[in-house]
């Protein structure tokens, strides 16, 4: 095979996380697995069949290109929901393939009906309401007009969902803003109810909201980060541990990132290692090169900071992260050889490199590090 590093995706970890979620999501609430950003870096083509085999049958993406990849990777008849962009030229494809999509402007609503008529197929829409995030969503004052339009075109529209998104449910500093959004959403729901235009589902919750504000779960939750084994941020993690009086991380990371030692050599005391002068060897060193760099998603911020595991020992990155390579100090590992396994994320022996340890050095949140793992890295499902 042709690659310099690879990702392993653990099935047993996913099973574990889904059972954790089932304990926190009320009965009869649908779980939508959010797989935007290449399934948070886990790889859509690998993740969809895996999630299906664990009982997931609803997937949410950002855009039509991702929906297309989810559809191609599906073996079951899953529901696919686009939460962001569908362009006019993709809309016919979406309607024809029963892909559900958010609508947050009138021109898309009109276009959807126009195409639905032509295709003799109903467009399955989710109306997104602006409640305070101020990103996308119809403002409340449009609800009358939306209801009128849906009523007039009910032969061509399935009003599947009414939804909104919270502006940072993972941080308690946003508490009042989230509460205001919840009130605003309820008001919108009431307006639709008054007009007797009733959506099949109400949904507002991402991972943080589902855990912190259980009432936000409604009929469906859109869960991204937790299914992959991460809390949305440290705050939600600590809050969870405290509330449950536990000390162990209750989720399991699906992803591991591995490579191999590419070369080993020695450096004399007084020499610099790699580009420039950021690392000076204070003593004679044995160094190993590893064929992973910032082009593979390994941040340059980890220069002279990051750690990897080799022979079940933690070793330091010395010098700057290159485009395709890093250099580590393996002086203390006598038996190290070219070809030995290197763990960049994950476990080796008793040690582990977590994704959050990266975040500390590189100021990347979990989400960013994961989604920046290139699509070209091969991903293998392991037990
Ligand atoms: C990304 C996203 C989610 C999932 O967020 P997580 O924090 O990963 O659970 C839910 N809803 C919308 C609209 C999103 O964009």
UniProtKB/TrEMBL annotation:
The active site is at residues 36, 275. The keyword NAD does not apply. The modification N6-(pyridoxal phosphate)lysine is found at residue 36. Pathway: Amino-acid biosynthesis; D-alanine biosynthesis; D-alanine from L-alanine: step 1/1. Its cofactor is pyridoxal 5'-phosphate. It comes from the Bacteria. CDD domains: PLPDE_III_AR (cd00430). Pfam families: Ala_racemase_C, Ala_racemase_N. This is Alanine racemase. It comes from Lutibacter aestuarii.
């Amino acid at each position: 095979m042709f690659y310099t590093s690879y990702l392993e995706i653990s099935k047993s970890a996913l099973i574990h996380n889904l059972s954790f979620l089932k304990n926190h999501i009320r009965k009869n609430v649908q779980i939508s697995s959010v797989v935007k950003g290449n399934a948070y870096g886990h790889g859509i083509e690998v993740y969809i069949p895996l999630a299906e085999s664990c009982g997931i049958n609803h997937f949410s993406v950002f855009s039509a290109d991702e929906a297309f990849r989810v559809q191609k990777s599906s073996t079951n008849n899953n529901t696919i929901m686009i939460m962001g962009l569908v362009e006019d030229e993709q809309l016919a494809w979406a309607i024809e393939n029963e892909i559900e999509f958010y609508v947050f402007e009138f021109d898309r609503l009109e276009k959807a009906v126009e195409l639905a008529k032509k295709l003799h197929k109903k467009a399955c829409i989710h109306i997104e309401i602006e409640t305070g995030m101020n990103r996308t969503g119809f403002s409340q004052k449009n609800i009358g007009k939306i209801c009128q339009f849906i009523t007039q075109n009910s032969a061509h529209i399935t009003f599947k969902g009414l939804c909104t998104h919270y502006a940072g449910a993972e941080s308690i500093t946003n508490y009042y803003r989230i509460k205001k959004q919840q009130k605003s959403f309820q008001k919108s729901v009431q307006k639709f109810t008054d007009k007797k235009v009733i959506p099949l589902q109400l949904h507002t919750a991402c991972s943080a909201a589902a855990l912190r504000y259980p009432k936000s779960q409604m009929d469906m939750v859109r869960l991204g980060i937790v299914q992959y084994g991460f809390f949305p941020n440290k705050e939600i993690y600590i809050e969870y541990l405290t509330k449950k009086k536990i000390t162990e991380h209750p989720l399991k990371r699906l992803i591991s990132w591995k490579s191999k030692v590419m070369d080993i050599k020695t450096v004399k005391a007084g020499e610099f290692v790699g580009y420039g002068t950021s690392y000076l060897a204070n003593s004679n060193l044995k160094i190993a090169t590893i064929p992973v760099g910032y082009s593979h998603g390994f941040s340059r911020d980890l220069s002279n900071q990051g750690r990897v595991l080799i022979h079940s020992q933690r070793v330091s990155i010395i010098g700057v992260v290159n485009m395709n390579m890093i250099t580590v100090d393996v002086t203390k590992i006598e038996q190290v050889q070219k070809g030995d396994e290197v763990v960049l994320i994950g476990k080796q022996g008793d040690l582990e490199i977590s994704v959050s340890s990266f975040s500390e050095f590189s100021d990347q949140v979990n989400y960013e590090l994961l989604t920046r793992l290139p699509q070209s890295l091969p991903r293998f499902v392991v037990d």
